[in-house]
Write a structure and sequence with these properties.
Largest sheet of chain A: 6 strands, mixed
Number of strands of chain B: 4
Helix content of chain B: over 70%
Largest sheet of chain B: 4 strands, antiparallel
Structural class of chain B: alpha+beta
Number of domains of chain B: 2
Radius of gyration of chain A: 18 Å
Strand order of the largest sheet of chain A: 6-7-8-3-9-10
Order of helices and strands of chain B: HHEHEHEHEHHHHH
Number of domains of chain A: 2
Distance between the termini of chain B: 36 Å
Structural class of chain A: alpha/beta
Helix content of chain A: 25-40%
Shape of chain B: rod-shaped
Strand content of chain A: 15-25%
Number of helices of chain A: 7
Largest interface: A-B, 27 and 22 residues
Oligomer: heterodimer
Number of strands of chain A: 10
Distance between the termini of chain A: 29 Å
CATH class of the largest domain in chain A: Alpha Beta
Number of helices of chain B: 10
Chain lengths: ~250, ~300
């Protein structure tokens, strides 16, 4: 498979503080569904920041869509960012815009013609069940609605890579499951999905997912045996392989 | 209403919250700066132009003054001087000033009715030479041939006035330039404040793929509009003042002040002030945003 992202001994620090990420190495193939797990402060959001091009690594090498993020020219970043959809932990919805305009934002930035924008956004709002709130301002929505709106904005431009930071943090278990199904659906359509979460109980619901576990800025389980959730088909296959080897 | 083709996409779709151009003090500051710059420039150009007009009129004029207490000898010397002047090619408009005219000239200093018949007055002869070289030549020969004759060229006494006018004009133009620079500095502060106010949204726009130029165009447009509003207001106010001052000057009706007026090129320069102010604001906004955004990834 073609690698969509590759981390090689990556370190990240903010200013002169201690490193928040240390020696991170992994490869993310196109079409993968990956869970990024770890306790609060483990470095999940920092790792996502590297993936959504909010930071350059302070050491090591991050390659995304074949470009070295550490040395890429600034003017090339917008084109790469348009290939990435992000669901931020705090949603980061644009409060002066309506729900419709929030979802339309990536398309309008890209310069898509307005008739197409209207059609696509209407369709997606219906998909996430927010058609009736299309003209409402984000701050009038419930946490779950805001979450769905943020997801709609992240996926409207059909990104190659979808990053979600604690996307189930503000929703009830039922909604969490629905959102996960939505991500799986996108993944089936070819989008590479990375979900950062501390809700490990969600992991078995995506049996094919790869798991990357972070602990205080470092990757745990470097052998890769825990890269797949307990009970998953991949995990079972690894155990099978291990047993056969013994 | 502003047509859509003028407004950048980011403004049409309100990527940043709408802000009324007239809200806040910025348009008024721009208006004040433009008004002062226009007045400064108009004053400077008028002074220079006024001195130019006067110099053109007086450059070849001269007065021969004959100081002689004896009226009979004085009359002889006047006749000799007039004859000498008339005998020269290139000398025209020879006129001997009447005693009454001389007395009138002295009245502002000595008081009306205080210039007695017994007060000895020099004789004065006005004339015009067709070139400064001829004037110099005539002056030298008269002062040599006619005892007590002294030649005053009018351009000579106008020189210090011209120098002063130039200095004042340069000061006025420098003030106009400084005001423009101050306006640019205020625009920089305004743009930075705007970027800080909308930092979160700008960050989101960046992260979902907006190029710098999307944000730059938006700020450029908004600050251009603010500057245009301020510049038009300031220009109209300055124009009213120029006309009002012009009427007062016309009423005075004499000397350098009366000669002062805006020539056509002066009007062009004055009209350029608000245009330059808007262009400068737009460019300043653009550069400020570009530099600020270059600091973030």
């Amino acid at each position: 498979m073609r690698p969509l992202a590759r981390f090689e001994n990556v370190g990240l620090r903010y200013g002169t503080d201690a490193e928040v990420l240390r020696d991170i190495s992994f490869r993310l193939d196109a079409g993968t569904f990956m869970f990024l797990v770890g306790a609060s402060g483990a470095g999940k959001t920092s790792l996502l920041k590297l993936l959504y091009l909010n930071r350059r690594p302070t050491r090591g090498r991050v390659t995304l869509f074949g470009e070295d993020i550490g040395s890429i020219e600034r003017k090339k970043l917008p084109a790469l960012r348009r290939r990435i959809g992000v669901v931020f932990q705090d949603f980061r919805l644009v409060d002066h815009l309506s729900c419709f305009d929030n979802v339309a934002l990536p398309l309008r930035i890209e310069g898509v013609v307005e008739s197409e924008v209207q059609a696509h956004v209407g369709e997606l709002l219906e998909w996430v069940g927010l058609t009736k709130r299309a003209h409402a301002r984000p701050h009038t929505l419930s946490g779950g609605e805001q979450q769905r709106l943020a997801i709609a904005r992240a996926v409207i431009a059909r990104p190659d890579l979808l990053l979600a930071d604690e996307p189930t943090g503000n929703v009830d278990p039922q909604m969490a499951q629905r959102l996960l199904h939505l991500f799986q659906e996108l993944n089936r359509l070819g989008t590479t999905v990375v979900v950062a979460t501390h809700a490990v109980h969600l992991l078995p619901q995506v049996p094919t997912a790869m798991v990357l576990r972070l602990d205080r800025g470092e990757m745990r389980d470097p052998t890769g045996s825990l890269r797949h959730p307990p009970g998953s088909q991949r995990q079972a296959a690894i155990h099978e392989a291990g047993r056969a080897a013994e | 209403m502003i047509p859509d083709w003028i407004r950048p996409r980011a403004e049409r779709f309100r990527f940043l919250p709408a802000e009324q151009a007239a809200r806040g003090s910025l348009p008024w500051i721009v208006a004040l700066m433009v008004a002062l710059a226009v007045l400064g420039m108009a004053a400077g150009i008028s002074l220079v132009s006024g001195v130019g007009v006067m110099k053109d009129g007086l450059a070849q004029r001269f007065t021969v003054q004959i100081v002689e207490p004896n009226p009979d000898i004085r009359a002889d010397k006047v006749a000799a001087t007039v004859a000498a002047l008339e005998g020269r090619d290139g000398i025209s408009r020879i006129r001997v000033l009447e005693t009454a005219e001389l007395r009138e000239l002295l009245e502002p200093w000595l008081g009306s009715g205080n210039v007695g018949e017994d007060l000895p007055l020099p004789a004065m002869i006005d004339a015009e030479a067709e070139s400064p070289a001829l004037l110099n030549h005539v002056a030298a020969s008269l002062e040599r041939d006619v005892d007590g004759a002294r030649v005053d060229d009018h351009a000579g006494w106008l020189a210090p006035v011209a120098r002063l006018a130039w200095v004042l004009a340069i000061v006025a133009l420098a003030a106009a330039l400084l005001l423009t620079a101050a306006m640019a500095a205020i625009i920089v502060l305004g743009v930075r404040a705007g970027l800080t106010r909308h930092a979160e949204t700008v960050d989101v726009l960046h992260l979902i793929g907006a190029e710098d130029r999307v944000i730059t165009q938006l700020f450029q447009y908004r600050f251009g509009m603010v500057a245009a509003l301020g510049a038009v207001t300031g220009f109209l106010v300055a124009l009213l003042l120029i006309f009002a001052i012009g009427r007062l000057i016309t009423a005075l009706g004499s000397g350098l002040v009366a000669a002062a007026g805006l020539p056509w090129w002066g009007w062009v320069m004055v009209v350029m002030v608000p245009v330059v102010a808007v262009m400068l604001s737009t460019i300043t906004a653009r550069i400020t945003v570009e530099r600020s955004l270059a600091d973030v990834l």
